[in-house]
Amino acid sequence: MSDDKQQSSGILRRTWDTINWVPPLCRYDPKNPPKLTMALNILFGIACTFTVANLYYSHPLLEILAVSFNISQERASLIPTVAQAGYATGLLFLCPLGDIVRRRPFVLLLMAFTATISLGLCLTKSFEAFVALNFIMSVTTVTPQIMLPLVGQLAAPNRRATAIAIVVSGLLLGILIARLLSGIIANYSSWRNVYWMSFALQYLILILLWFLMPDYPQSNTGLNYFRMLFSILEIIVKYPLLVQSCLIGFFVSSTFTSFWTTLTFLLSDDPYNYSTIVIGLFALAGIVPMFFGPFFARHVTDKFDTHVSVLMGQGFCLIGIIIGTFTGKISVAGPIVQAIIFDFGQQISQVANRTAVYSVEPKAASRVNTAYMLCVFCGQLMGTAAGNHLYASGGWVLSGGANIGFMGAAMVILLLRGPKETGWVGWRGGIDLRRNKREDKKDGKEETGEGGGVREEQDHDPEKGKCVSPEQDAQSEAEKKGAGNDID
Predict the structure, then answer these.
(1) Any transmembrane segments, and where (predicted)?
(2) Please, which pLDDT band fits residue 465 given cuts at 50, 70 and 90?
(3) What is the DSSP string of 154-220?
(4) Dist CA 319 CA 403 (whole Å)
(5) Which of 260, 310, 428, 485 has the fewest CB atoms within 10 Å, i.e. is most exposed?
(6) Which of 246, 216, 230 is nearest to 373 (CA)?
(7) Residue 11 has pLDDT above 60, yes or no
(8) pTM score, two decimals?
């Protein structure tokens, strides 16, 4: 028995050593920090695509899974519910770790664990085991929420929105491609092949990340895990900009889930009576905003204050909702137009919100992201519940009217606080909506090295190999003035 334990321990040790080993090209050099290149940015986006897809593969398969496991459709619906619960668990307890651990081994470990759990989904014949494995896999399917704040930290301030938009587009592509591939594969072969595909793709992404993802230093050292979790509550109430963005994210996400949930009921009922396959094709409407989102971020969000993009995004959402709500029962063109315009508005609003909050406290980017995403997740739950209840009570127009109200609340919250306001309410500082290049340079010096590379902690001097006080560090920086650390 002891030999088996030693063998298992040896396998785990070798696995960890492999994950923790860094290829020479990916090793961190404080004198030449790794830069966020476009290729690396796209790789992070692709990794998000095939990671977040794990949450959505089961959606088109519920009827098939009910037959395969010999259970009712009601029990089968537990699968996506449990997956969302697992994702929320990982969001709260795993994502904040991005502030106290090295991101490279953390991401690789999560990817390896998630991919391996997929193998169990391919093989199990027990519904209870399938649900349990799906929950565990969903807990570790939070890689996108580790990568998004990392990208926000790595990107130069004048390119941050573009970099975030690329990763967000990858995330949205994962939601779309999961449902599409899952439905097609299950239609022509066994549903288990969906998870075999997922298993293979995730290990392929893992290998690419192992060879190409640079190693980045810890953002914080000596921070206790439980103290870190408690600090999320402190961060939420500390920064007015974060509170404003969280509330906006709450109402926009509630509108998003309310629309997509009730759309299924509308299209499956009179006068349309569409099949589930046709209804599933409506998800293709998300392709348009997914590809145009990064271009908008490059030419608008990166050049103006994030208030501009959030307001424009909310405007697109509101226009889409009004069109879809009052034409949805007359022509299918209404919901199609709503899906395209609303998804585009929701994406640019989300990207702008993330761009704003990641600059709030750079060394706590993962905790800031956790706070923001928890509000978004709560909004999604409220939108689903409210949309279903209102549709059952008064139909499509009533649920659409609630969505108009949700979006109106988001607009009011945005307009209560101006882009230059440092307090909770007001428009002090004027209404200049252009980006402040001086603040961008200051932001860049705090977060990144030249060209967008991560700098080591301020309290550590890599040349001397010892800790220094903030005052000594500031003096050292002053002596090195002109060395070219500022981002242009």
Answers:
(1) 36-57, 77-94, 106-123, 129-151, 163-188, 194-213, 274-296, 308-326, 396-416
(2) very low
(3) HS-GGGHHHHHHHHHHHHHHHHHHHHHHHHHHHHHS-THHHHHHHHHHHHHHHHHHHHHPPP---S-
(4) 11
(5) 428
(6) 246
(7) yes
(8) 0.79
